[in-house]
Write a structure and sequence with these properties.
Strand content: under 5%
Number of strands: 0
Largest sheet: none
Radius of gyration: 19 Å
Number of domains: 1
């Protein structure tokens, strides 16, 4: 947690208090290079993890379907909130006009996807057996990336404008993601003829695969824990790929939905790039709330 908060807050304070110092730093290059490195390390970690690779054949299809259902459910609910709450709709319309003038999200999506795939191939080959090293590397690269995000946020005076416009309505964003994710999980469980509580529990990982899989393995069974692990890993990968596209097509608020709990760390820079840096605080808030919600909802559904 501190490797997330310290560089993010430190970068923000430095840029806000000492803008002359921050202007001398290559913030854009730092963010771009560290983002690509982080995604390559993420892919390498998956390729080097024998547990993940061995389970792809037996559980991969179900996990991918579950991940897709939770992501689509989250986006759908936030889009409905956009229709119900005028503030969300106005923000989406303004952002769509801005993105129409800027570079397309397709190029960013291809770059992000290419980095993950390249990393996965490296994990299967030259980085095989280096999982502990890759895990440590991911932590440090993420810290470097969040330092760049903090510097970028600190140099933008209007960065919290979107939060002020939304006001207390921001609480509906994590609530909507929770509802959409659980609906997707229950829908998937009904298709597979599984207890709906199990589908809801797996979906309640909200992308945090490490915690949710451990909790479900201990409370329920290792098999369901493995499904939770893979489905939440796939949710994070899907979020990496589609977040820029969702921001362009549907607006900045729905773009927060795919990331789930990872909106506060790994996906934060991607949301900032795709939806606009003024939405980074919103993404961090949503990811933090969802991270706290994971153990609550997993325990709740498995106790029913």
């Amino acid at each position: 947690m501190w490797m997330i908060i310290i560089p993010l807050v430190g970068g923000y304070i430095l840029a806000a208090k000492r803008p002359d110092w921050a202007e001398k730093l290559p913030v854009a290059a730092l963010s771009n290079v560290s983002l690509i490195l982080l995604l390559m390390v993420m892919g390498a970690r998956l390729g080097a993890d024998s547990q993940v690779v061995s389970q792809l054949g037996s559980l991969g299809g179900r996990a991918l379907f579950m991940a897709g259902a939770t992501v689509l459910g989250s986006i759908f609910v936030l889009c409905l909130l956009g229709l119900a709450l005028p503030k969300f709709r106005i923000e989406a319309e303004e952002n769509s006009r801005q993105l129409a003038k800027g570079p397309a999200g397709y190029r960013l999506t291809l770059i992000l996807l290419g980095a993950v795939v390249a990393g996965f191939v490296l994990g299967l080959t030259v980085a095989k057996g280096m999982l502990p090293i890759l895990t440590d590397a991911a932590t440090w690269v993420l810290g470097l990336l969040l330092l760049g995000v903090g510097l970028d946020l600190g140099g933008a005076s209007q960065v919290f404008a979107s939060l002020r416009k939304l006001g207390l309505a921001i609480i509906f964003i994590p609530i909507g993601i929770v509802a959409g994710s659980i609906l997707g999980g229950v829908f998937t469980a009904l298709i597979w003829d599984l207890p709906w509580q199990e589908g809801a529990a797996v979906a309640s990982g909200f992308g945090w695969y490490s915690l949710s899989s451990v909790l479900i393995s201990e409370i329920h069974s290792p098999l369901l824990g493995a499904l939770a692990f893979l489905s939440n890993v796939f949710r994070e990968l899907i979020a990496v790929i589609i977040t820029p596209l969702v921001a362009r097509w549907l607006g900045p608020v729905p773009a927060v939905a795919p990331a789930g709990a990872t909106a506060m760390d790994v996906l934060l820079p991607i949301i900032s790039r795709g939806a606009g840096r003024e939405y980074a605080p919103l993404a961090f808030f949503s990811g933090a709330v969802l991270s706290l919600a994971v153990p609550v909802f997993v325990n709740l559904f498995l106790s029913l």
